[in-house]
Design a protein that fits this description.
Largest sheet: 5 strands, parallel
InterPro entries: Flavodoxin_fold, Flavoprotein-like_sf, NAD(P)H_dehydrogenase_qn
Shape: globular
Distance between the termini: 25 Å
Order of helices and strands: EHEHHHEHEEEHHEH
Keywords: Oxidoreductase
Oligomer: single chain
GO molecular function, one term: NAD(P)H dehydrogenase (quinone) activity
Organism: Candidatus Olsenella pullistercoris
Strand content: 15-25%
Radius of gyration: 17 Å
Pfam family, one: Flavodoxin_2
């Protein structure tokens, strides 16, 4: 397990291909809130980095050894090792995180780095990550996703995957019904996101 850095640091994993998107505005609100709170942070911009989420045949052949063949994966692991908090900012596509984020999990969370096999489940090695927050936007209303579509991001991503990896608790924050939302509603949610992060000093 990586040692926790002396100064609290947040790693933001951002996933959206268009800088004019509402997701990019969410990223800016997250950064602004953390800056106002005096927290150091790094941004991992998957599209800007040209990250390839699909695992290659060569990568899979070395997977069980925990070997990273992609230099970006090595860089992302170094960033994650410096952090004590993780924030993911992305859209919801078909009731889940996009393939780019799923690929980040597949390729970065290598055995030996983030988990060890025990024969009775995984032994997570990311205990230095004290909290995971996922900020998303969706066409579906948030309550509908929680109550009718299985609450997958909170249940599978945060409460299962990151829990297995040893991370602390976390929460899913979603702006639902974006297609029918007004500029005022979107502005209010951005202010709420920034305000909540600012208050977490």
């Amino acid at each position: 397990m990586a040692e926790k850095s002396a100064e609290p640091t947040t790693l933001i994993v951002y996933c959206h291909p268009w800088e004019g998107s509402f997701n990019h505005a969410v990223l800016e609100a997250v950064c602004a809130g953390l800056a106002r709170a005096g927290r150091a942070f790094e941004v991992c911009d998957l599209y800007a980095d040209g990250f390839e989420p699909a695992m290659t045949r060569e990568e899979l052949a070395r997977y069980s050894e925990g070997v990273a063949l992609d230099p970006l994966v090595t860089r992302y692991q170094e960033q994650l090792s410096r952090a004590d908090r993780l924030v993911i900012v992305s859209p919801v596509w078909w009731n889940d995180l996009p393939a780019m984020v799923r690929g980040w999990l597949d390729k970065v969370m290598l055995p030996g780095f983030s988990w060890d096999a025990t024969g009775a489940g995984l032994a997570g090695k990311l205990q230095h990550i004290e909290r995971v927050d996922v900020y998303t936007t969706s066409s579906n209303p948030t309550d509908y996703m929680r109550e009718r579509l299985g609450n997958g991001i909170q249940g599978t991503v945060i409460d299962a995957t990151f829990w297995q990896l040893g991370c602390g608790g976390g929460a899913w924050h979603n702006f639902g019904g974006i297609d029918a939302s007004t500029p005022e509603q979107r502005a209010a949610w951005l202010a709420q996101v920034e305000g909540e992060l600012t208050e977490e000093r």
